[in-house]
Fold:
Amino acid sequence: MCGIVGVTGTQEAASILIEGLKRLEYRGYDSAGIAIQRPHGQYVVKEKGKIRNLEASLDWNELKGTCGIAHTRWATHGVPNRDNAHPHVAGKIALVHNGIIENYAALKVQLRKKGRVFSSETDTEVLVHLIDDLYDGDLVTAVQKALALVDGAFGIAVTHADEPDLIVGARRGSPLVVGVGDGENFLASDVAAVMGHTRQVIYLDDGEMVVLRPGSVQTMTISNEAITKEVQEITWDLGQIQKGGFEHFMLKEIFEQPTTIRDAFRGRTLPDTGDVKLGGIQLTDWELRNIRRIIILACGTSWHAGLVGEYMLEEYAHLPVEVEYASEFRYRSPIIEPGTLCLVISQSGETIDTLEAMREARRRGAKILGITNVVGSTIARESECGVYIHAGPEIGVASTKAFTSQVTILGLITILLGRRGHLSADRGTQMLKELDRVPDLVQRVLDQAERIKDIARVYANHHNCLYLGRGVNFPIALEGALKLKEISYIHAEGYPAAEMKHGPIALIDENMPVVFICTKDSAYEKVVSNMMEVRARKGRIIAIATEGDTEVAQRADHVLYVPPSIPMLQPILSVIPLQLLSYHVAVQRGCDVDQPRNLAKSVTVE
Ligand code: G6P
Structure:
């Protein structure tokens, strides 16, 4: 999704901005641009496609300026091309924008009447013209007046050629972080863009603005009330966002899972009492005992983790659970009764639908517990209480390690709530002992990577794929199908295995590979029967089965084995071969695994 970087200081801005844009590449984008302020006017260059195209178009002799803003765009209004790329310019003002200005069409009509001419199809260009229209010698005031007139979401950075060391930033609904340096200051939509220069950051909240100069950072609300913000220190390092010898971030992140899963539960388990301690959940035992219903809100892969959580919480904590697509929940009239706890799951902590659904749930009286990865993200800051999954930066657009860490945390929350209800200490202890083995079991699955690569070769040229599972393996079927379609562009669907008879069975012939998640659990026999139905129609079968299971091997074309575990933790093991399968299929097909077409890592527009 779109990315913003800005710098004002004493060093040449262009190379800092290009480096920052490269650190934001993982978010997904289709064009990029840069505006540099120089003593004799601003220099703006934009290009469609990769940042290397932008770099190739830069005239470095023209780039001698120490203040500038830059952007990676992910198209919403208007196709990806040079005209629609940011920065957009009106008069002497340049602006980059993440988010969507919803009333841009009405504003455009008014501005056109005043003689304004537009050269792009974007909502952003309307905003820069609006600011220019309201400009009367003071950029901060013009930005404030303009933002009072717009509906929608924005994170923006604005410069003016007459004040060549000034950057004005503002946010509503789209993240923005200030990097505080020594004689230089930065602005970005993602902390990764400024990390090479400073570890001191200020996270802006909705409705806030910042005025940056080389030696000063002034924060205020968009309605011009001065505010004091806390400067925070970033605790992770740049090494964590580099590939570490792997060909792709996604592969690195798949292989990190034994460590990231352990990091998710490290120091949080109490095996002696079969209980857990989660420091971020500031609810009393009484409050925890009085939770009557759970609503899980999330999107994408995080939603699939939520579905696994539903099985866990119902089975072991005996609580009714609903898992909602955040985007649907926020526009319905959801019923929140007293005693409702909302688990809000988001890797990035910035997904706009999840954030807004969380706000809606809170407005209606639910208690909010955020489960996020990115420290300091908006969902983390706005949750009443929360748990970080501690997976480290996830760069690959297709989420892998965040999923297994989210499921791990949902397991801990299940034990926390279960132990305040029906779950015995013995059962809790058993579950925690099993959890402690999971990182080694995951490693055992990862050790089969070469075999999975061989199977991927066989299926790389197929056009469709079906994923089937029952019970807690149904969300794993959904996640397996999502992984495949996201990065290899093969049409894939996940289904509850029994539902196959109600439609998808019509698709099955020798050209339809079917992935069965068929581990030894209470639904095992039934899934094997479904497998026979596929075999009878000549479908090709890849089975994920439990180590030692010889029956499945007789029915499937290929079997990938996972070690046995308790039902609650089995999905963490079953998803690993599916992650590797989609990775290797995508590589075979020559797809850009880390930056799949049209997708974004952090979806900050509705
Ligand atoms: C995007 C990403 C997915 C992710 C989803 C939700 O679509 O490409 O990988 O699962 O957003 O993101 P979140 O950060 O809220 O977990």
Q: What stands out?
A: The two ends are 12 Å apart (CA to CA). DSSP finds 19 helices and 26 strands in the chain. The chain has a mean pLDDT of 93.
